[in-house]
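Chain A, query sequence.
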Amino acid sequence: MKRANLIFALLLITIISSPAAAGSGKISGVVFSDYYYFFSSHNQALEGMNGFRFRRIYFTYDYRFNRNLSLRIRTEASSSGSFLREKITPSMKDLYLRWNFSGQSLYAGISPTPSFNMVEKIWGYRSVERTPLDLYKMASSRDTGIALRGKLLHGVFYYHFMFANGEANLSEDRREKKLYAALGLSPVKGLYIEFYGDFAKGSVPEGDITTLQGFFSYSFSRGALGFLYAKQSYGDGTYIRVASGFARFNLTRKFTLLARTDRVMDPVPEAYKISYLPMDNTTPFTFFLAGVDWKITENVSLVPNLEMVSYDQGANKDLAGKLTLYYKW
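Chain A, predicted structure.
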């Protein structure tokens, strides 16, 4: 732990003291934190649990070598969300070179995956909750490898391909690799349709993993609507199916309503490991979220929100309230 903290500190000192930080580069950051309270839980040990926490702290440095070549270094500091006493731990979130050519981009290093990059962008509230593939541990937001991404036909057609380790931002420990592909279409302003798939060979004891997702959204001047369906299949014949819908609506320039529901039609094997909101892994369930975003300034938001998980069988409902503070610079 001490070694990781030392490396993290040295990296920040190097970035800030470099000539690029004074002129050619750009430093930015994002923080989201909560005060949370568990009103009820399928795990009785969590009932009444409450406290202040930092869920994510991003520190980003962008540097442009020339018109076509750029670098991004993003560090992330976070806790595991396991409700244990622990320190916030730093790690590398992004570390990639980006080469732009003819309106397209080639990435090399640790970069965003195609899994839910556009879904998360349109949902717009990663600070409140992760998108379904991320929340239910069906995909990772980052991976190490090479990626090609861009738009064609004046933005009508979008694509994102990736060939990577399949180990998120961890080091590689197996021979097999992972293939990702996302194809998007925006035929009219505000409408976006995307088809996504990935394939990982023999990455777990259950065998090969295949993930497919369809996403439909419509964005308008005062908000957005989105729907998706995803299925993750394993080589042993088991699978996880998720259907989700969300809406956000701007009441005024300062207040936005947000709501989402996910229907998870199969038990999620690793649901008990979900950070900050562990769930029962033995039964299908429905997840609900509702909140109000109060935009204090352009870059600071306070979002009171409720999350509930209703199980098909046995377990008591999970009901947690959060007061989420989000800010960036």
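Residues 2-328 form a domain with the Porin fold (CATH 2.40.160.10). Residues 2-17 form the longest helix (16 residues).
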